[in-house]
Amino acid sequence: MSYTTNESDDGIMPKDHTDSPSAEEACSGGNLMEVGPLKKGPWTSAEDAILVDYVNKHGEGNWNAVQKHSGLSRCGKSCRLRWANHLRPDLKKGAFTQEEEQCIIELHARMGNKWARMASELPGRTDNEIKNYWNTRIKRRQRAGLPIYPPEVCQQRLDESQESQNMSTFLAGHIHPDLSQTNNFEIPAVEFKNFGLKQGFTSYSPTLLDVPARSMLTQGIGSSHNYYFMYPPMHPSKRLRESDTVFPDLNGCVSNALPAFNQYEYEDSASEKVAQPFGLSSPYDPDLNANDPTLLVGAPFTPIFGNSTLVAGAHLLPHCLHLSLVDTLIQSPPNEQTKSECLSPRNSGLLEAVLYESRMLKSSKNNSSLQASNTSVVPGDVVDNSPLNLCETGWEVYGDPISPLGHSAASVFSEYTPISGSSSDEPMSVETMPGRKVYLEAVDRVSTQYGGKKAISNQMDFSRPDALLGLDWFGHGTEQW
DNA sequence: AAGAATTTCAACCGCCAGCTC
DNA sequence: TGAGCTGGCGGTTGAAATTCT
User: What is the distance between the alpha carbons of residues A212 and A398, in angstroms, rounded to a whole number?
Assistant: First the structure.
């Protein structure tokens, strides 16, 4: 839409001022309003006054009635939006404080693009505001070749992931059969709400439990998209509302699962939209696996957070089967055939992966200590390619679009492939956060997976610790947001 | 000073889930 | 049970404002 300042009685009017049926349709959810043409574009103060007056008298909600009763030529949606984003009395105006910025970053690390949920944890701020803030900052950082998340956030998410992993491992091994027969394995979304600034950010660990089964099914099986396995091009809001998706555990119980993982698209320097690697890689991708064994370091369904092989297994194992797969599961119980197929690059079946993961669970338990030891690398060391290497599993393979070790890690590394001070031919390790290093060679591989047109000029030198660690993340140092 | 480039942000759009009838 | 309505969400757009050259 293009706006022109048309000094009509109302003030600024959009060019298409809209009486177009399509606009009405969009606004009213498909049904045309009985009343005349609906106005679009910027709100005037007169309109604001009408809306405020109406809400004061009648309260929020029933937004379509606003038009009918107040004479506003605005659709209900528009009224709701205007109220929520600008007229609400409890809105906090002005720039985000540093504390809020920190909060947003951490919330985004936990939630991804769940602006509404983030807004609910930032009193007085709207989802739109947060979304705008995030997008502009991200763009800025992307242009500057800087990582999206502060290393401490990454570290925090790693730690939380570790905790989650431990808990999940516990659950996987200790779920009482009676419990599994019920629907009690749901984790209420409320758990993740209202973790305000004062309380820190501890709860939301996007794990596979959070991944809508449909996403897996629609994209995971037979998907030809590298890294797209858990990152379907479906509408994010759809995923968000898939908490009713049922996830039977291996005992046949059906559980709800939290949605969480989120889509995040970014635009590279060539304005080429690419799907950001999602939290899980597709270990079955032929190219991936064939070309690079190191990219197989995690078990199938291994999600984003570093050594989270366990996380995936633990969460996924009891939950992440779509109901439609239950029959399949029953009819085709796991067997050795399944196992071998799981390891086949050609096999992109979800179920097999789940079963595989369950098997991996035991062994990975034993490996966790090794993982931990492998992640502490003294500067100058080179991280080995061991599947147990936390960093590589977490940062290299899995691109979570929403989390420090997923999206940020992956996106950071895929978007900001370092060049300065290093040879592109030479595997380069870099300590991206205390005790954690990654192979940049592998990063390059991830990067080029999306067309290889990454902005070489738009890259930071990851070999410089200050590039990642020396920055004031909120733009109060050398680098501005 | 002027034009270009970039940033900001309000508003729109399409989709979806829940509710009601 | 299904259609229609409503509200909510996340992504996108584009005018205005700001910064850069």
Answer: 17
Per residue in A420-454, pLDDT (tens digit) is 333 333 333 333 333 333 333 333 333 333 333 33
Based on the number of CB atoms within 10 Å of its own CB, is A14 exposed (0-12), middle (13-18) or buried (19 or more)? Answer: middle
In this model, does residue A100 exceed pLDDT 70? yes
d(CA A281, CA A283): 6
Q: Does the C-beta of A271 come within 7 A of strand C? A: no
> Is the C-beta atom of A144 closer than 7 angstroms to strand C?
no
Closest CA to A227 of A71, A383, A409: A409
Distance from residue A87's CA to nucleotide B11's C1', rounded to whole Å: 14
Q: Which nucleotides of C are covered by protein (CB under 7 A)?
A: 4-16
In a domain? residue A475: no
Domain endpoint, select from A87, A106, A129: A87
- A157 and A135 housed in the same domain: no
* Same domain as A191, residue A48: no
Within A 72-111, residues with CB less than 7 Å from strand B: 77-78, 81-82, 85-86, 95
Q: Does residue A92 fall inside a structural domain?
A: no
Q: How confident is the model at residue A36 (pLDDT cuts 50, 70, 90)?
A: low
Domain that holds residue A118: 98-144
Q: What would the mean pLDDT of A148-158 be, rounded to a whole number? A: 72
Of A127, A144, A161, the residue that ends a domain is A144
Distance A42 CA to B10 C1' (A): 7
Convert A186-225 to b/e letters by CB count within 10 Å (16 or more is b). Answer: bbeeeebeebebeeebeebbbbbbbbbbbbbbebbbebeb
- How many separate domains does chain A show? 3
Nucleotides of B under 7 A from a protein CB: 7-18
Q: Are residues A403 and A257 in the same domain?
A: yes
Q: What is the CATH number of the domain that holds A138?
A: 1.10.10.60
For chain A, the helix, strand and coil percentages under 3-state DSSP, each to the nearest 5: 50, 5, 45
With contact defined as beta carbons under 8 Å apart, do A226 and A447 qualify?
no
In the 7-26 segment of chain A, residues within 7 Å (Cβ) of strand B are 14, 18, 22-23, 25-26
